[in-house]
UniProtKB/TrEMBL annotation:
SUPFAM superfamilies: Glyoxalase/Bleomycin resistance protein/Dihydroxybiphenyl dioxygenase. The lineage of its organism: Bacteria, Pseudomonadati, Pseudomonadota, Alphaproteobacteria, Rhodospirillales. Residues 4-119 form the VOC domain. Coiled coil: none annotated. It comes from Terasakiella brassicae. This is VOC domain-containing protein. Pfam families: Glyoxalase. Gene3D superfamilies: 2,3-Dihydroxybiphenyl 1,2-Dioxygenase, domain 1.
Amino acid sequence: MLNAIDAIRIFSGDFEETRDFFVNALGFVIGFEGEGVAVYDLAGTKLILEELDLSEPEAAGMVGRFTGISFAVDDIDTAYKDLKAKGVHFEGKPEREEWGGALAHFRDPANNVFTLVQYPQQN
């Protein structure tokens, strides 16, 4: 009944800065943009950036949180260096994990946390 995940929504109180970060630092292409919303099509899954008025009570806790969204990369060290050179703020260097892969967490201008993941090579 349910198919693949179609879209993931991310929230920001500074829409312009966060939109520009996704385009300029991460290289995402905007497929649709409207007032307070930008949609990036990432190989079949949409990442939707939505603007929130941070003075509204229901906005509390929706911005600046761990998203649980991971972006797979083939070479985490190279991706880390390239993104860091573009001004992406990482919480630390890539760390090798017990399961054989590696992770590195970074933040967007709204302080939302994302993850780079390099999976172990399959033989």
